[in-house]
Amino acid sequence: MNLAGAQAGRAVLSHAVQWLRPFPVPESQLDAIETLRRDGCLIIRDFLSPVVFENARSEVMRVLQAQDAPTPTIHQHGSTTVRQYDVRSVESSRLPNTWKFFHDERLVALIQGSEKFRFDMSGPQGLRAIETVHQGDDGSFDQETELHSDIFFNTHKAWLYLEDVTLARAPLVFVPGSHKMTPGRTWYEYKESIGSNDSSRRITTEELDTLGLSEKILAVKANTLVVANTCGYHRRLKGEPGNVRCALHASFRLNPFWRSDSPDSPIQNGLTVARQRAKNIPALRHAYQKASLVASLRSMKTDRFIMKDSQHTLVVDPHEPRGFNVLMGRASGQPHTKRLWREAIRSLQPQLVLDIGVNWGEYLFREDYPKPCTIVGVEASRTLMPFLEKSRGLHPDQSRIHLIHALASDQDSEDATFYVDKEWSGRSSAVRDHLSDNVRVEHVPSISVDRWLRGRHLQSLDLVFKIDVEGFEVKVLAGLKQTIASATRFLGIVEFNSTALKQAGNDPLDVFSFLEAETVQIFSCDRNGSIVPFASNEWKKLAAKQEDIEVDLIVVKLPFGHELFGQISQSVGPEKH
């Protein structure tokens, strides 16, 4: 469909819809909003009165230095660490002057006038935060220093800088006028949509030159407000190690096609109901899926495709919802952990690779493997096995790839129960409680991976592994204990979902206790791709509060963690702010 212009058309339509949407603007802010709409960026110096600004800066520093400082959201961009402390999680009495900024009538008018949406600055939409940006010194690449566009529609971010933003402090770089969906930019949107189609589009020098645009470095003084439309091209200037900048930050990303002050709008509800009913008509759903696949794959063979960022073909069932999703996205989901999987295999050159919970095989069949290397995939779903066998038959390393139809567990058994979620194969599990009502029960064998490998003398090797078993991780790790203990070096990716683990009757902390007992380094990779050291005490506090935790854990056995993890993590990270 993108070949026919679907994505480019969607981008043009989103800009047209916003341009046509009426919204009142206070007369006092007409000039400022006109500048923002024209240039995509607005700078207002000395935004707050000196007294309010100094008080706001002082109270922010007190909150950040307090023992009960709020837990930040951390984004690791190479050597640059961005921490965002949501001010809505702090008692307003501790930040009275900070809230004067967020409730300032001029700021509210600017944001509402540019987004054309009326909202409460204390409400849930968007982010209101204290943001710090720390320039590290390990030399790893910060992807945010590449010129990019966050999204195809108009969306805005604002910063009030609490200190002077010098070149050393990595100021924002913006390309004025680049937010407009001109014919030239629309052409590049189209080219991207039929190519790599990344969520955060990178901009080349050739594109800037063709469009006649140029960068502007926003090195500004303290108490300067900067509002930027991040549909426009922007980046972070590379700063100098050891420097930190601090700002009050607000960001907003709303549906470009539908905005209503009332979430219970009868029109919105009617559209939602109509979409849901259409999805429940099999003939309509299958016809749409078939047409979408033919257009996307440019082939009438709609069960196979070459994966994004890979040379290898994957075969799936397009009638299974997750299979359809994988097909349409060319297996582009989870890009950060897939890049980590690739770099671990290239850097470590393992003799053994394990994929436990293969599903459609987006990890197992993605890479070329070193020689000699034994590759093992364990999958419990009988339905998926014929497709996995076809994918193996198309892979150049097929003779070294072993597919095991079994439930990975802590012991061998001839009859284990496995629940297949017919609505989404990725949720299928040996744990029943977290699944939908639409399940199919399969009786399958279970195996201990340790016993299977020991019988083939595949232990005491360098190892890369993945475990994605929807709450069954404790049993799998128990059946993998000897392999992990005997491995010389390893890197593993373990999906951790505290809710699924508890529904399986396990204490989520048992996973951490097992890994810590194996003297490994533990990192976490969030959905934005930020990789940070695992803080055991913090996770235990969250678990004690019964808070849900869903994250990919990265476990690295010493001394491999010291030698190679920095090299691997440099190539994995977020693609946008």
Written account of the structure:
The longest helix has 16 residues, at 50-65. The chain has an 8-stranded mixed β-sheet with strand order 17-16-15-21-22-25-23-24, with helices on both faces. A 7-stranded antiparallel β-sheet has the order 1-10-6-12-4-3-2. The two termini are 28 Å apart. Helix 1 packs across helix 6 (183-193) and helix 3 packs across helix 4. It folds into 3 domains: 2-252, q2cbj1_9rhob like domain (Jelly Rolls, Sandwich), CATH 2.60.120; 266-297; 304-569, Vaccinia Virus protein VP39 (Rossmann fold). The protein is globular, with a radius of gyration of 26 Å. The protein is built from 19 helices and 25 strands. 33% of the residues lie in helices and 23% in strands. The chain has 577 residues and is of the alpha+beta class. Strand 13 and strand 14 (313-315) form a beta hairpin.
Summarize the structure.
The protein has 577 residues and is α+β, with helices and mostly antiparallel strands. It has 19 helices and 25 strands.
Topology of this structure?
Elements: H1 6-20, H2 30-39, E1 41-44, H3 50-65, E2 73-77, E3 80-86, H4 96-102, H5 105-115, E4 127-135, E5 148-149, E6 156-161, E7 172-174, H6 183-193, E8 201-202, H7 205-211, E9 216-217, E10 225-229, E11 234-236, E12 244-252, H8 266-279, H9 282-297, E13 304-306, E14 313-315, H10 321-329, H11 335-348, E15 352-356, E16 374-379, H12 385-393, E17 401-405, E18 407-409, E19 413-421, E20 439-448, H13 449-454, E21 463-467, H14 473-478, H15 481-486, E22 490-497, H16 498-503, H17 509-517, E23 520-525, E24 531-533, H18 536-544, E25 550-557, H19 560-569
Parallel strand pairs: 15-16, 15-21, 16-17, 18-20, 21-22
Antiparallel strand pairs: 1-10, 2-3, 3-4, 4-12, 5-8, 6-10, 6-12, 7-9, 7-11, 13-14, 19-20, 22-25, 23-24, 23-25
Helix pairs in contact: 1-6, 3-4, 11-19
